[in-house]
Specification:
Chain lengths: ~150, ~500
């Protein structure tokens, strides 16, 4: 399990708010000047980012002032972070490799790490699930699924 | 109007939307029955696959999931003592004790009948009230739309959860994200960093799927080793005529409470259910028996929460402002279908809107039929392995975000939004305000731009139109009532701490 104090996250997001404000102001410098009686492209983002920074600082200060010890717990954190990692890999590679190749691998790995069943059952489940999804979405609903190297 | 409604029913059947509605209600009941999965998540996952469908067909599917999902939550509330959705929280109080007494079948029948009748009354109110509101809303000009958007943004205070400041922070974040892409007035690309993918802004759909579906799946991975509770055995499903007469007044009363609560933006099905339960208990001759398995204690919240589903659609369809998470997601779906939610929808697409009304009415009849005939089947669904469902949600989230534009960039957005959403919710940063900001940001900014052009820069225009004053009143009322409410909460919690 991973735990960390919520106030550090509040402080971090307060800083993000300030960083966004600075970033928006610098980037919007290059926006064209509006004609008379026209809302410039920079006005709305600047107002919103200024408010965001103010609220972010308010949350951070309030959290520090309260001396709150509230903690954020993530049980099975390693598994959650690993899932995020393999999901990213799956998402980024699925177009190139193809839905039919990568999906059974992703499902089998995820079922294995969650200890769903034996390796054989997990493999069989992943293949049958992929086939089911392919049938429903690609064949029946004509939803475009990533074809990848197989070409279908 | 009645003629339009008849045409709506005819279109529901001829366009095959009734089939979509059936599938929606069926899937909704399953999603709602499974603890941890919500109707909102179901709609979010479904939207990408509705792209390109006939709007009436797609909307019927979404309405079916919404209504079925809220009803489905009662099945696990009665059989497992675990509400499938927050809306069924109040149903646990008497539903589970009734099941423990060996009357699980009766409890399920009551929840089905109450959900269907309550939902039906709510749907009829929606059908006859919404066009009247839309008739007024059609008079809106750009200044009114700016204030309408601002009023919609004050809804953040209702969906903010534990911390108002954190809710506002997330809403502002949504607003800021909505400024990415081409500026609606000058046409200048903003914050795109030369990325073609960002020219039309950060797509709503991948963010929506990430925040409401992938985030929930991460939660599923975290809690994958939680043991599933053993369910109560189902007995004969049905109730006597005498019992029906006993619960009928509570069903009707709760339906009106639920519809009203739903129509007030920012409330929700859970609040409607608890208010209905509270009223049933207050007006009962035996309030002391509530919590021990009273049939009215099952009927009232179930009627209230399904009526609320229809009430919540009133501000969404007529004004284009979502009041809570599920309608916010549906609003996103409407926009992706190419429909502009709000009063013009009634003027430009009467056929679609009246087919939708026909769907809301029919969805309740389907709940009645499916609920009574399929109760034993839906109870079996509760034994489905959550690990496999979690994995399926991930895969559907990925293919859903990909299907829209065949774009890996959108897939990346979904995964990152999902992971951030999962972490932020744990630290009490609510995610529905992000969606409110994303949806309402362009509405406010583009209409503000138009107002400035039309009024030649005179901002007093916001104070000279009668409908603007209506919105100023609503905005001020929402802000003041929320400040008073949060002060009360702070006072109560500091008093509790002292004790």
């Amino acid at each position: 399990m991973v735990s960390f104090k919520v106030k550090w996250l509040d402080l971090f997001l307060g800083l993000i708010g300030i960083a966004l404000l600075i970033g928006v102001y610098i980037l919007s410098e290059s926006f064209p000047e509006p004609h008379e009686a026209q809302l410039g492209a920079s006005v709305f983002p600047r107002i919103v980012s200024a408010l965001l920074a103010v609220v972010g600082i308010f949350i951070a200060l309030q959290s520090l002032k309260k001396k709150s010890n509230a903690e954020l717990h993530i049980e099975n954190a390693k598994m959650v972070f690993f899932t995020f990692f393999i999901l990213l890999l799956y998402g980024l590679l699925v177009k190139k490799a193809g839905f039919l190749i990568l999906t059974p691998v992703f499902i089998a790995v995820l079922l294995n790490i969650m200890k769903y069943s034996t390796i054989i059952i997990n493999l069989l489940t992943s293949i049958l699930t992929t086939a089911g999804i392919y049938l429903v979405f690609k064949i029946f609903l004509s939803v475009p699924l990533p074809e990848g190297i197989l070409g279908f | 109007m009645v003629q339009y409604l008849f045409n709506g029913f005819a279109n529901l059947i001829s366009s095959g939307s009734i089939f979509a509605l059936f599938i929606g209600v069926f899937l909704g009941i399953i999603i709602g029955a499974l603890p941890g999965l919500t109707a909102t998540m179901g709609i979010a996952l479904l939207i990408p696959f509705t792209y390109g469908m006939n709007p009436a067909f797609a909307l019927s599917l979404m309405i079916g999931i919404f209504a079925g999902g809220i009803y489905g939550g009662s099945i696990s509330a009665i059989l497992l003592k675990t509400p499938g959705t927050p809306a069924a929280g109040a149903t646990v109080l008497d539903g589970y004790p009734l099941a423990q007494k060996g009357q699980a079948g009766k409890a399920l029948a009551i929840s089905t009948i109450a959900s269907a009748l309550g939902g039906l009354i709510g749907a009829l109110i929606l059908t006859f009230l919404a066009p009247q509101i839309a008739r007024i809303a059609v008079l809106f000009g750009p200044p009114e739309y700016v204030l309408l958007g601002a009023y919609g943004l004050t809804m953040i205070s209702y969906v903010a959860g534990k911390s108002m400041a954190k809710g506002i922070f997330m809403g502002l974040l949504g607003l800021l994200i909505s400024t990415i892409g081409i500026d609606p007035i000058s046409g200048f690309p903003r914050f795109t960093f030369g990325q073609l993918n960002l020219l039309s802004g950060l797509s709503l759909l991948p963010v929506l799927i990430g925040l409401f579906a992938a985030a929930q799946a991460f939660e599923g991975v975290e809690k994958h080793n939680e043991i599933q509770v053993k369910q109560v055995k189902i007995t004969k499903i049905g109730i006597s005529g005498h019992e029906f007469i006993q619960i009928l007044p509570h069903i009707i009363k709760s339906a009106f409470i639920g519809t009203f609560v739903g129509a007030v933006p920012g409330t929700g099905t859970d609040i409607a259910a608890f208010l209905s339960y509270g009223e049933a208990k207050r007006s009962s001759k035996h309030p002391e028996e509530f919590g021990t398995g009273r049939i009215e204690g099952v009927a009232a919240p179930e009627s209230g929460n399904n009526a609320c589903v229809n009430g919540a659609m009133i501000p969404m369809f007529t004004l284009g402002i979502p009041g809570e998470a599920a309608t916010a997601v549906m609003l996103g779906g409407l926009m992706l279908l190419g429909l502009q939610p709000g009063p013009l929808l009634f003027k430009e697409n009467p056929q679609v809107i009246y087919t939708v009304f026909a769907s809301t009415i029919t969805s309740n009849l389907l709940i009645l039929v499916l609920g009574l005939i399929g109760a034993r089947f839906f109870a079996k669904v509760l034994q489905l392995p959550m690990k496999l469902i979690t994995t399926l949600i991930f895969v559907l989230a990925i293919i859903g975000s990909y299907a829209m534009r065949n774009n890996v960039f959108d897939v990346g957005v979904t995964i990152i939004a999902g992971f951030l959403g999962y972490i932020l919710v744990k630290a009490d940063y609510p995610v529905p305000p992000v969606l409110l900001g994303l949806i309402l940001g362009p509405l406010v900014e583009s209409n503000l731009g138009r107002t400035i052009i039309i009024s030649e820069g005179n901002l007093l225009v916001f104070f000279t139109r009668p409908l603007c004053w209506l919105f100023w009143t609503l905005i001020l009322y929402t802000i003041i009532s929320n400040i008073l409410k949060s002060r009360k909460t702070v006072k109560a919690s500091s008093q509790e701490a002292k004790e």
